[in-house]
Amino acid sequence: MNKELKILLWLAAGFLIAFFLPMDSLRFQNALLESLRLVKWYAREHVLLCLVPAFFIAGAIGVFVSQNAVMKYFGPKASKWLSYSVASVSGTILAVCSCTVLPLFGGIYLRGAGLGPAIAFLYSGPAINVLAIVLTARILGWQLGVARAVGAIAFSVIIGLLMHLIFLKEERAKAAHVQDVYLGDDDGKDRPLWQVALYFFAMVGILVFANWARPQEATGLWFAIFKAKWLVTGLFTALLGVCLRRFFKVKLLYIVLAALPAGVLALAFPDHPVVAFAAGSAGLAGLTFFGGAELKDWREQSWGFAKQILPLLFMGVLAAGFFLGSPDSKDAGIVPNIWIQALVGDSPSALLSILGQPSGVRFQWLETIWPLWTNFFASVTGALMYFATLTEVPILRGLLDSGMGQGPALALLLAGPALSLPNMLVINSILGPKKTLTFVGLVVVMATVTGMIFGALVE
Questions:
Q1: Pick from 99, 148, 132: which is nearest to 392 by CA?
Q2: How far apart are CA 35 and CA 381, in angstroms?
Q3: Which residues, at least 6 apart from 314, have a Cβ–Cβ distance to it below 8 Å?
Q4: Among candidates 323, 356, 424, which has minimal Cα distance to 28?
Q5: In this structure, are residues 142 and 406 in contact, taking their beta carbons and an 8 Å threshold?
Q6: DSSP 59-114
Q7: Cβ of 180: how many Cβ atoms within 10 Å?
Q8: Which residue from 106, 158, 95 is spatially nearest to 130, judged by alpha carbons?
């Protein structure tokens, strides 16, 4: 009976939503268009270059990294100092966004990593991007740059430890179960460690340099790397081909045939390297049909992550676009930008003006809670928005110019890059609602408190 009642309630809710859709509202129409525009932008900018390599890496973790190796360095009984140290600085190497880190997080967590180190890795992956921190310091000020770097590393460790302690009973049960099931399993023992390391080095190199973002200034080391990013990506691709030939005995003819379309397209469309990258990804997928059982397992593991994660990401991106618009939009989401700017300002005057209060009117209770509210709102907004790598910096520059306080700016920087609505949906499918809500709550609360302290110190 309860099941039938739930079905009835869902049907009734769907009917009421459809019945009262405000289709005549221009803002509602624009918000629908923005949701589709954001999905298009996401598909063009992130699926091929970010997610596809991440799926391959996650699948490789499941096949080529032994269970005992994961347990040794990231398992519940591993050295806390070692596991949290490695996990908390992983973002300096990966430089990925909140969605790209998900397959990698799923790979190590499902392989037996403890909840704490896995969560530290999940947070730090997108949060501790060296280029983004440098850009933050140069555009938003050195105080925000330093606070972001220190806060991101501290957050990853503290949130990981708190998650471990909150779910300590479950972690102990998981540790005992994994130990019983996998203690004698060393499925990577037949392949030397240096081969596995070189193989992952090639794939991580492709992921990092294919997504190397254009720096703000057209000079210096970062820009030089950006100019050479596709050449460097090609070198890592060649290294991956060598690994497939030497370690997995894929025939040279098959490797050449798989790489040939990508090479031809790179020469034919030099201004559109994504076309060649897509052809290379398809060629790599094709090679997994000709490399024996290991590569077959690699393909199936990668495909499993793609099936689980991609639909949830696209649903989340649609929702984020509808509510907050796309990165290039100007006040096009269902939530007006002027409200966001008013709710994170230095004072409540802009909000009172929107509400129609006369100039000069003050509410002491509102001014008292204003720092708490602005930092909390910035943290929640940042957690729901989707930030591609580096895009949070120009967005925040605009908000700061519109009156946003320094504290809320830091709160958004600490909550935004590590979380997003699409990201939450996928984390929920891996960890379940209780752990997901706890993780999101910890990020929001810590970002809020840190923003309040930072704002009190610098303003």
A1: 132
A2: 17
A3: 39, 42, 422
A4: 323
A5: no
A6: HHHHHHS-HHHHHHHHSTTS-HHHHHHHHHTTHHHH---TTTHHHHHHHHHHTT--
A7: 9
A8: 95
- Low-confidence winner among 8-17, 160-169, 213-222 (lowest mean pLDDT): 213-222
| Closest alpha carbon to 307 in 297, 299, 319, 295 | 299
Could you give the C-alpha distances from 224 to 130, 217, 230, 310, in angstroms and in order?
A: 16, 11, 12, 33
The runs of H, that is alpha helices, within 325-390 are 337-343, 349-354, 364-384
Cα dist. 78→258, 306, 307 in Å? 41, 29, 31
The amino acid present at 447, given as its one-letter code, is: A
From the list 229, 227, 207, the residue with the least C-alpha distance to 217 is 227
State the greatest distance between any 2 C-alpha atoms of the chain, in Å, as a whole number.
Answer: 77
Task: Report residue 251 CA to chain centroid gap.
Answer: 36
Contact of 458 with 385, CB cutoff 8 Å: no
The one-character DSSP state at 191 is: S
Q: Which residues contact 323 (CB under 8 A, 6 or more apart)?
A: 31, 333, 334, 335, 384
Measured distance CA(285)–CA(180) in Å, rounded: 35
Q: Which two tokens stand for residue 328?
A: 């290039």
CB 178 within 8 A of CB 126: no
pLDDT tens, residue by residue, 250-304:
899 999 999 999 999 988 888 888 899 999 999 999 988 887 788 888 999 889 8
Question: Does residue 375 contact residue 110 with C-beta atoms inside 8 Å?
Answer: no
Find the length of the chain: 459
Distinct helix (H) and strand (E) counts, the chain:
24, 0
- For 119, 124, 132, 355, 363, the CA distances from 320, given in Å and listed in that order, are 23, 22, 22, 26, 33
Secondary structure E strands in 115-248: none
> Residue 363 contacts by C-beta under 8 Å, 6 or more apart in sequence?
348, 352
Asked whether 119 and 427 are in contact (CB, 8 A), the reply is no
Token output for 211: 């997504």
Alpha carbons within 13 angstroms on the beta-carbon side of residue 209 total 22
The closest alpha carbon to 413, from 441, 439, 450, belongs to: 450
pLDDT tens, 422-450?
889 889 988 999 999 999 999 999 999 99
Q: Which residue has the tokens 């790489």?
A: 259
Angle between helices 142-166 and 168-182 (to 10 degrees): 70
pLDDT exceeds 90 at position 237: yes
What pTM was estimated for this model as a whole? 0.74
Q: Environment class of residue 310 by beta-carbon count within 10 Å: exposed (0-12), middle (13-18) or buried (19+)?
A: middle
Question: What share of the chain in percent tops pLDDT 90?
Answer: 19
